[in-house]
């Protein structure tokens, strides 16, 4: 039986609990330091509370310790990992191989040798060779690069079937392969490998040819749409993925609730069609007070990215901001209002937007909605009849999600039996028995027993049925039934709070790694040797020196992208486009004059971005 895991983001404790309540099988969250989203840190105490809550449902909590580490941070990182282990976390996501070195050495700090390790997408996991190498050095799970197609995922699973494969299915996309973007460090002194990405890819650029001719003016040429694989989960499952990751550790609880509920329902629908082959990785059934709708929360427009190979229209050159859902077209304009042609309904306070004639996003708030006639707080200057209109803030929908919007319960099927000196109640492998005189019931006892055992309000459980022996005819006092129910629930919750998965797959003989071996390894000479930032990682790789871009700088690309502007602009001859009418190399230019050279690696179907 294959277990499928829906993995949700948590900005904080509130978001983590919301994710569990709305159907997540696991949550990933950042601690106070060393996470790839520096702005989304949490205390160990909050993470401990989240673990206790999640483990009631056998859901797991993973913590991101996935930045590169400097020498002066190693001791603090090891202390943090030990504290996280004590708090009950189920795994940590890792980028820096110093963590493996520390795990082996157990220097001064706590022994966390049984803690499960996941290779973060920051380790740039594109190939079966890389995944196999990560397995051999001690990783139980590998988070694959977002850019992989379903065929590439299937090939990795065929070649390395004993590694759990985690894939992104929803949320923001980085234009560069993760772990291989140094643009923010180069331009702003803020390292993406240190959790401080300045989102250079969301900036405006001019596109110039070698003669300085301007091909595109001030457009968001590196800004991608958001990922949405909600209609393709079955393909990913059949390809061998078992964990489905939602991006969004900077998103609020409303986003988490909506997106988690939408994907949870889709996973449940798939499992309902294949009940003998698949099951959810955690326990509990969710009921919702709303209908999930992915377009109603933050999105830049959706793409399936490279799921089925290279696709057009994966980027969003007009805006890096949320567009939301299409709600109709502008019809009749008056001095202070306009009509919308479409079937959507509107509410006072809705946020709407459109792309104006200058190809820029323009937004406004609805002051008053009368049917399909909208009265903005201030009429947008560039609104025109016939323009497409989008809603990026649905007041009514968000209001429905701002309160308790889901309930998650674990079904308990009770078995009541007679003992030599009383009665016993069993459920989910736990049995509670109490001494009680055997008294014949004056009327059938079944209904009252069901009524008393079903009083599970305030707990994560619900009664799904009660079984009695066929000849059961005893009276059990309500006080006895209530006490057995209380003790049984307490025992189940104690078991849940101590839940931890099996330890990571660690080989007894870890293969030696040397700088010479790295030259032809799946790591690549440009890849990991540019991310060694401390002496322990240096020792791990057998590298001649600490060589992280953040410390040494570098001459290689500041971005490695599968997104290709030659293709996006219809000029990739390899894929049927027109022959370019420009002179290469091409350059991206920021408004301040900073330029980046583009190199098109057609052999590997990759665009590399170099700082000038």
Overview of this protein structure:
It contains 16 helices and 30 strands. With 612 residues, it is an alpha/beta fold. It has four domains: 2-173 and 226-286, TIM Barrel, CATH 3.20.20.380; 177-224 and 549-612, no CATH class; 302-308 and 316-401, Thrombin, subunit H, CATH 2.40.10; 409-497, no CATH class. The strands form five sheets. An eight-stranded parallel β-barrel has the order 1-2-3-4-5-6-7-11, surrounded by six helices. Strands 9-8-28-29-30-27 form a six-stranded antiparallel sheet, with no helix packed on it. Strands 15-16-19-18-17-20 form a six-stranded antiparallel β-barrel. The longest helix has 21 residues, at 253-273. The two termini are 53 Å apart. Residues 501-521 have low confidence and may be disordered.
Instruction: Please compute the radius of gyration using only Cα atoms.
Output: 28 Å
CATH class label of the largest domain:
Alpha Beta
State the distance separating the first and last CA atoms: 53 Å
In CATH, the topology of the largest domain is named TIM Barrel
CATH superfamily name of the largest domain? Copper homeostasis (CutC) domain
Count of individual helical segments: 16
Mean pLDDT: 91
């Amino acid at each position: 039986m294959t277990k499928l895991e829906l993995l949700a983001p948590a900005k904080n404790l509130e978001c983590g609990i919301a994710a569990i309540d709305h159907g997540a099988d696991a949550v990933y969250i950042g601690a106070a330091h060393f996470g790839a989203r520096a702005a989304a840190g949490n205390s160990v105490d909050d993470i401990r509370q989240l673990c206790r809550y999640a483990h009631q449902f056998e859901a797991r909590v993973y913590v991101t310790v996935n930045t590169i580490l400097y020498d002066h941070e190693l001791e603090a990182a090891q202390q943090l990992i030990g504290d996280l282990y004590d708090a009950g976390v189920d795994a940590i996501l890792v980028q820096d191989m110093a963590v493996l070195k520390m795990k082996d050495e157990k220097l001064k700090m706590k022994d966390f040798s049984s803690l499960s390790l996941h290779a973060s997408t920051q380790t740039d996991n594109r190939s079966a060779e890389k995944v196999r190498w990560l397995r051999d050095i001690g990783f139980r799970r590998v988070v694959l690069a977002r850019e992989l197609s379903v065929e590439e995922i299937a090939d990795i699973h065929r070649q390395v079937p004993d590694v759990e494969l985690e894939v992104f299915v929803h949320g923001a996309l980085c234009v560069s392969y993760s772990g291989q973007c140094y643009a923010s460090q180069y331009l702003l002194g803020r390292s993406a490998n240190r959790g401080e990405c300045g989102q250079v890819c969301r900036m405006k650029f001019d596109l110039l040819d070698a003669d300085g001719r301007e091909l595109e003016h001030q457009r968001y040429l590196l800004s991608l749409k958001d990922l949405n694989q909600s209609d393709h989960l079955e393909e990913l499952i059949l390809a061998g993925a078992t964990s489905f990751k939602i991006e969004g550790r900077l998103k609020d609880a409303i986003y988490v609730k909506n997106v988690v509920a939408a994907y949870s329902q889709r996973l449940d629908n798939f499992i309902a069609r294949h009940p003998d082959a698949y099951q959810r990785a955690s326990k509990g059934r969710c009921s919702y007070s709303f209908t999930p709708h992915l377009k109603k929360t933050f999105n830049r427009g959706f793409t399936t990215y490279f799921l089925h190979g290279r696709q057009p229209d994966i980027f969003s050159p007009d805006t890096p901001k949320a567009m939301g859902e299409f709600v109709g077209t502008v019809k009749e304009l008056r001095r202070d209002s306009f009509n919308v042609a479409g079937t959507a309904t509107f509410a006072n306070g809705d946020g709407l937007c459109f792309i104006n004639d200058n190809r820029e996003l323009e937004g406004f708030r609805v002051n008053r909605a009368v049917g399909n006639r909208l009265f903005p707080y201030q009429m947008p200057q560039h609104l025109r009849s016939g323009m497409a209109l989008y809603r990026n803030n649905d007041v009514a929908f968000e209001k429905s999600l701002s309160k308790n919007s889901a309930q998650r319960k674990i079904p308990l099927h009770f078995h009541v039996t007679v003992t030599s000196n009383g009665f016993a109640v069993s459920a989910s492998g736990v049995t509670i028995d109490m001494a009680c005189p055997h008294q014949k019931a004056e009327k059938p006892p079944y209904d009252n027993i069901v009524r008393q055992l079903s009083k599970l309000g305030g707990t994560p459980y619900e009664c799904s049925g009660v079984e009695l022996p066929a000849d059961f005819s005893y009276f059990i006092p309500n006080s006895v039934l209530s006490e057995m129910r209380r003790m049984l629930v307490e025992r189940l919750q104690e078991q849940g709070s101590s839940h931890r998965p099996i330890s990571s797959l660690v080989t007894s003989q870890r293969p030696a790694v040397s700088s010479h071996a790295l030259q032809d390894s799946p790591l690549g000479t440009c890849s990991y040797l540019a991310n060694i930032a401390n002496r322990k990682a240096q020792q791990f790789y057998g590298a001649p020196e600490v060589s992280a871009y953040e410390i040494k700088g570098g001459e290689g690309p500041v971005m490695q992208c599968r997104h290709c502007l030659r293709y996006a602009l219809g000029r990739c001859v390899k894929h049927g486009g027109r022959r370019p009418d420009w002179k290469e190399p091409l350059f991206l230019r920021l408004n301040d004059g900073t330029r980046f050279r583009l190199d098109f690696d057609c052999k590997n179907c990759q665009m590399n971005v170099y700082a000038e």
